[in-house]
Amino acid sequence: MSRAGAELSILFSPGCVQLLQEEVLVQGPKVLVTGATGLLGRAVCREFQAGGWTVVGTGYRRARPRFLYCDLTDEDGVRRLLHQFKPDLIVHCAAERRPDVVERLADATVQLNVNATGTLAKEAALCGALLLYISTDYVFDGRNPPYGEDDAPNPLNMYGRSKLEGEREVLRHCPGSVILRVPVLFGEVESVAESAVTSLWLKVQEGTEDSCLLDHCYQRFPTDTRDVAAVCRKLAERAKQPPPSVYLQDPSIRGIFHFSGKEQMTKYEMAVAMAQAFNLPSNHLIPLTEQPAGSAPRPINCQLNCSRLELLNLSVQPKPFMSAITDCLWPFTPDKRWRQTVFH
Ligand code: NAP
To answer: For residues 109 and 116, what is the distance between their CA atoms, to the nearest angstrom?
Structure first.
């Protein structure tokens, strides 16, 4: 067991400010999780902590008090952070991932999704850290599913383009990196609006008072952040087999991987499943089969072929949607007994 207190109790300058005053006892490998305040980053931090890793998570607006504040668009701050913490692994979750926001904030998105990813990749290469970059099924146009890792990307919107550019930055500056593409995510949320999946709960709960139109056109594969986090840890632990003193990378664990839930559902079908899970009425939910106008274009069906992970025995069996979504939504039900009575 070694002490990392000296490394961690450094006052970073204003670009990346955080003082970690308590001594941290380092056991096992170290992982830096960007976007640790976000939907996926929280699950990734929990998964690696449970696996005995020393975890430092960074956040931005929601960083304090639990996480390091780091603006990833501040190159010097990122450099200092990596040189001081010296992670074995970086799981890069931070991104602007809301397609309609990306269309409005194009420059800021490029700064975060592309340029900051490039900076992290350069610094990961310099530090010898393995970089695991989280990407998206939106790099594909959705016209010819399922998509393998080698299929040609053709993003339809700026969000997909920015994530694809991020992938290219990663491979250009740090060729040994791992890219994990995932579809729409749900998980433990701070508010139901935090994920496109759990936000459907608001429509389900409207009950029979008003009818609700819900998309029944785009085919999605909702995926639990806990499953993605478990895959991240499997990839990291297989990639970096620890011989006695140094970490060497397994060369078969590099490049692009796909992971996805297996249940194909439209938003309408997800909402009906939520209503069923909680014995609520669903006859007010109306399927809408026309593509909505006015929002950023989205692919119809980006089903991911996940066989590369499966062949390497690095996948996990995705949790069934009904039970996984119940885990996420019970805190937002008036009757918390669901926790004990549904699917447990
Ligand atoms: P999220 O919940 O929106 O979290 C975004 C994270 O980025 C937050 O932790 C945020 O920090 C951080 N961040 C924003 N601006 C930053 C900056 N300038 N410097 C440092 N950090 C900054 O995202 P998510 O849903 O967890 O997504 C994780 C990854 O999965 C992303 O790469 C995304 O592209 C990919 N993905 C997500 C989905 C999905 O459905 N959610 C689907 C496919 C792929 P604060 O909150 O503290 O400001």
So the answer is: 10
- Given a cut of 50, whether residue 281 has pLDDT beyond it is yes
Nearest partner of 196 among 129, 240, 241, 137, judged by Cα: 137
pTM score of the predicted model: 0.91
Using alpha carbons, select from 98, 29, 97, 37 the residue that is nearest to residue 71: 37
Could you write out the DSSP letters of every residue in 292-335?
PSSS----SB--B--HHHHHTT----PPPHHHHHHHHHGGGSS-
Residue position matching structure tokens 């989280």: 134
Report the pLDDT value the prediction gives residue 246, as an integer from 0 to 100: 55
Counting ligand 1 atoms within 8 A of each CB, the residue from 12, 46, 60, 181 with the most, and so the one to mutate, is 60
The single-letter code of the amino acid at 332 is: F
The residue contributing the CA closest to ligand 1 atom 4 is: 38
- The pLDDT value given to residue 26: 57
Residues counted in the chain: 344
- Ligand 1 midpoint to CA 36 (Å): 8
Report the nearest atom of ligand 1 relative to the CA of 225.
26
229-254 burial, b at 16+ Cβ within 10 Å, e below that, comes to bbbbbbbbbbbbeeeeeeeebeeebb
Q: Is residue 16 lining ligand 1, measured as CB closer than 6 Å?
A: no
Q: Is 130 in the pocket of ligand 1 (CB under 6 A)?
A: no
Q: 94: CA distance to ligand 1 center in Å?
A: 4
In tens, the pLDDT along 24-55 reads: 555 679 999 999 999 999 999 999 999 999 99
CA–CA separation, 40 and 48 (whole Å): 12
The CA angle 334-273-296, to the nearest 5 degrees, is 100
